[in-house]
Write a structure and sequence with these properties.
The protein is an alpha+beta fold and 377 residues long. The protein has 13 helices and 16 strands. The protein has an eight-stranded antiparallel beta sheet. The chain starts with a helix and ends with a helix. Bound molecules: pyridine-2,4-dicarboxylic acid and zinc ion.
Length: 377
Amino acid sequence: MQTKNSDHTRQLQQCRQYFSAREFDKLNEIFLPLLDKKIPEALLTQVDFQMQQDPNKGIGNLLQLAENNIPMANYKMAMLLYFHPELTLDFNTFLKQAYLREESSAILVCAYLAYANQNTELAQNILFSHSELDGINDIIFALGLDHKTTDIEKPNYQTFKRSDNTRHTLQYHNQEISLATADNFLSKFECVWLKLRAQESLEPSMVVNAENGKKEQSPVRTNQFSQLIPTSSDWVLLDIEQRIAKLIQLPISHGEVSNVLYYQKGNEYKPHYDFFHPKDPGSALAMQDGGQRVRTVLCYLSPAKEGGETYFPRISEKLAGQRGQLIVFDNVSKQLTPLPPSLHQSLPVTSGDKWILSKWYRLNETSYKQNLLELNL
Ligand code: PD2
Ligand code: ZN
C-alpha cells in the first residue's frame, strides 16, 4: 500500500518530538524507514537534526541534497545562507535553482525580495507569471494588483540583495517609557503576507490571569489573534523578526512567538500593562519562560478607518498608526521595576477593521529559541 504524503508529514512531526525529547530509539523506529525510502521531507528533516548536533555535517549534507535537486533542498540552502551571511556563500545560487524548479515558496520569496530591492515591476511579473502556483493568487489579490489574464512571459532570475537592515531609525515620543516609532518599517508586501498568514488560524484573544499565570479569554480583550509559529518556509516572517530585533537591540531569541491581532468594529483591548506585576500571584509562573516582559513591539499592518488607536492614557500619547509603522516601548525600568506610564490600550474600533503585529520581548531567552534553533537561525 502506498503511504500518503500527509502520513509522512505526521510521522516526521512525531520524529521531531522524539528528537527534542532525546528519545532516539523511538525516533529511529519511524525515521530510518523514511530515510531508506529517500522521502525528500525526511532527508531535509535529517539536515535539521544534523544542524543541531554538527552544523558542518548538516550544511555538507544539505549541499549534496541541493546538488541532487531534491525538492525544497535548494530553497532551504538559500534560506540558510540568507540568514547566515557569515557563511559567505551567495544565497542567490540556490534560490535561482528553487525558482527554476517553480517551487511556490521560492517564487514568493523572489517576489518579496524584488519588492524589497525596489523592483516593483519584476515583483509583479514574477507573481503574475506564476499565478497558477499554490498561494500566489492570494498574494496578488491581497496586494490589490490588477489581475492579468493573458499569459506573461516568466522573467529570468535576477540576483537579489538582502532586505536592508540599516535604513530605519527610531523617532522618540516619550522618554519615560522610551516610546518610539519607525515609519514604513514593514513594506506593503510584508503587511499583506502577515495578514494572510494569520487568517489561517484566527481565534479569540487571551490574557494572562494575574492570580494563576494561565492564559484565558477576557472582556479586557475582545479582538481575535493568531500566533505565528514560523515554519521552515517562513522566510518573510523570520526576516521581519530579525529586522525588529536589530532595530530594538534585543536578541531575536528573547522574543515571544509573534501574534497578529485582528480587531473588528467594537473590538478593543482595554487599558493594561504588558509587564508581570511582582505582586501578582501568577507572575512567577508566567516569568518562568524568559523572565520579565521588558519591551513591547507593535507593527500596524492596517489601521482601522476610525478608532482603534494605540493609546497611552498616563502620558497622553495617542498613535493612530499607519500601514507598516512600528511602535516600541519599555514596560519596566533598567532596574526591572514596573513603569506605570506604560499603561496602554487599543481604543475601540468604530469603523473598518484593524490588523496589528504584536511581539513581546523578555529579559532572557525564551522557549521560542527552540523554534528558531529548529529553523537553523
Ligand atoms: O493593538 C494594539 O494597539 C495594542 C494595544 C495594547 C496591542 C497591545 N496592547 C498588546 O499586544 O500588548
Ligand atoms: Zn499591551
